[in-house]
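Bit of a strange request maybe. I'm writing a small parser for C-alpha cell strings and I need a real example to test against, not something I typed by hand. Could someone generate the C-alpha cells for this chain?
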Amino acid sequence: MIICGQEFEFSALNANDLDRMDAAQQHMQAASDRESKRAHTGTADILRGQCRLMMGYFDELLGEGASERLGLDGNNFGACVRVTNAIKEAIAAEQAIVKQAAAMPMNREQRRAVAKQKKTVPYKVISTPKTTTEDTFIRGQTEVSYGGEPDVVVPALTDEQKTEQLIDARQAVDALRDDPDAMQQLAAYALQIAAERHV
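Reply from user aminoacidic:
Good idea to test on real output. This should exercise your parser:
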C-alpha cells in the first residue's frame, strides 16, 4: 500500500494485516488511557503526547520506522492527521477495487428487469406552478421536458375544466384496472402526492 508516497507492506485485503491493525488499535487505546492520566505541562505537551500515540500506531501497523519514513517527528499533530487520512483513503481505494470486481454480471432476465424498472420509474411531481405558454401543455397539465421526466404544471383551471379533468382521470383509472403493474404505479403516485401535500 502506498501512503504519502511511501510503499508499505500492508493491505486492507490481507487478513493478517487486518489482525495487526486491530492489535495496533487496541494498543493505541491502552496507551491513550495511560496518556490521559499523565500530568500535562500545557497544550504543547498534550499535542506531543497525541503525536507519540499516533506514531506508535503507525510503527506497529506499517512496520518499525514507518513514522520516520512518513516524515513525522513527534511535534506536528497536523502531519499525523494527514497520514491518518492518507491511510484511510488508501484502505478505501483497495476496498473499492474489491467491490467493483465483486459486482456480479447480470443474466438476460436481470438486465431486462433493470431496463423495465428504469422505464417505469415514477415521475417527479413539482407542486409549484410554472409560467409557460399554452402549447407546452399536454391536455392542459403536463409539460414534458427532454431531461426524461415530465414536470407537472398547475395552471389556474375553471370549475368546468376541473370537472372534465376529474372525469378523464376516473376513466383512465377504470381503463387501467386490469393492469396490475399500472395500478401499482398509480398507487405509488397517489401516495407520493399525498405525502407531499400532507407533510
